[in-house]
Design brief:
six-stranded antiparallel beta sheet; two-stranded antiparallel ribbon; 4 helices; 8 strands; about 15% helix; globular
Length: about 160
């Protein structure tokens, strides 16, 4: 895990992070970057890298939390502790060819497809609090989603 403070003008899937989080122009974001691996927990050597994951937060919101350190942290619990319990999220998915750097980090062949996911999470008051940007291997992966609508009445 690496942690950095960046300008909110960074672009993810064509939209600035600051816009995705509803931040004023010129705001800073805290970003946690990780390479995620498959394999049983507790193995001394990680398995194969299966995704790249960047988590973006308003720097002002999380600067004094465990999210600002390189140690493992539970974003949902930390955000809830700050009064921002995650209520839902919006996902954007785009398959595309992997970049040279993605192929290197994920040990992919020369021509490889990845699935790019951008998940923007909001709290119970609909405040945008987290943007998760993942690049997932596309070779043999199956992605399954279930959607529920708890506020819709039965007809």
């Amino acid at each position: 895990i690496s942690v950095a403070i960046e300008d909110s003008s960074a672009i993810v899937l064509g939209t600035p992070i600051g816009e995705r989080l509803g931040l004023p122009e010129g705001s800073r974001v805290l970003v946690r970057r990780a390479v995620r691996y498959t394999g049983p927990p507790g193995e001394t050597a990680p398995g194969e890298a299966d995704s790249l994951a960047d988590e973006y937060y308003s720097y002002e919101l999380v600067r004094d939390t465990a999210l600002a350190s390189r140690t493992p942290a539970d974003p949902m619990a930390i955000l809830a502790g700050l009064g921002h319990r995650i209520r839902g999220h919006h996902d954007e998915l785009r398959p595309r060819l992997a970049t040279t750097e993605e192929r290197r980090l994920l040990s992919l062949p020369q021509v490889s497809v990845v699935l790019e996911l951008v998940r923007t999470a909001h709290d119970t008051g609909r405040k945008l609090v987290l943007v998760l940007h993942q690049i997932r291997r596309g070779d043999g992966a199956t992605f399954s989603y279930e959607t529920s609508y708890p506020t819709r009445a039965a007809n």
